[in-house]
Design goal:
This protein is an alpha/beta fold. The chain has one domain: Luciferase-like domain (TIM Barrel, Alpha-Beta Barrel). 36% of the residues lie in helices and 16% in strands. The chain contains 10 helices and 11 strands. An 8-stranded parallel barrel has the order 1-2-3-5-6-7-8-11, surrounded by 5 helices. Helix 3 packs parallel to helix 4, helix 4 crosses helix 6 and helix 7 packs across helix 8. The two termini are 24 Å apart.
Length: 302
Amino acid sequence: MNIDKLKKFGFSIGIELPLDSDWSKEGQSKGLKENRPFGVPDIRKHKERIMLADKLGFSAAWIRDVPLYDPNFGDAAQVFEAFSYLGYLSGVTKNILLGTAAIVLPLRQPWLVKKSANTIAYLSNDRLILGVASGDRPSEYPLFGVDYDSRGGLFRKAVEILKSDSEEFLEEGQKILPKVSKYPIYVAGLAQQDPQWVGENLDGWLSYPGTPEEHKKRVALWRQVAGDKPYVSFMHLDLVPEVDAPIVRHRFGIKSGINGLIKELSEIKSVGVDHIGLQFRKNEAPIEESMRSIAEHVLPIF
């Protein structure tokens, strides 16, 4: 497999799960009525919505690795365990790439991560993008018996194992199965590492959401240490029905009509971003309606 599979699309647009609007006004009201803590999405329509995203032509679906729901952070992500969920998603989709953003390596046994990733790559017919991270939630580490301050070293060792051919570590005849062709490994942030090491050792960068100007600065750093490897980021979108509604910025994204979204994505593309994953948790309009509108008016442009 070519490790630049995502970049082969050119500039591309994906989605970030959960496909729920639990951070919208209506979503928060609904969550209170159902006694769901803030940040715990309604996942009852997750199958139908991921299948719709696949059918509409979004290029990638991204899920996060949140081992422990902590009310101080207030975000359970897509609720399901990452690799288990990717196995399920691989069975209900056909074309959409499946990415993690990102697996917290210091909290997982690296050989099991390797076996899990190999399994997903095989079952999904080579659609896995393995995003990895060092983690940023200190409250999770005591539960796993891991020293928070050691996460940088643990991350580097895990990456070494993931990138290896296995045999150099194993006894004669031992194998990690299934054996698959190499899948890309992206990093979220810098994972407590030097930028040069990250650029040399990882296949792509998962950057935090930002404005076009913020992405311009980050892309420049990434190109300096990693050349043309993929630069990926995300956007929290509230797509309103009025097509010419102006862009209103909020934390990690925008509220806008379809023309404003096209303008924002065009600027992001122009500064060198390769892929944007759209998150709909702030979206006030029905998610299916917004995805169909983007598929009709935005995806063909890019």
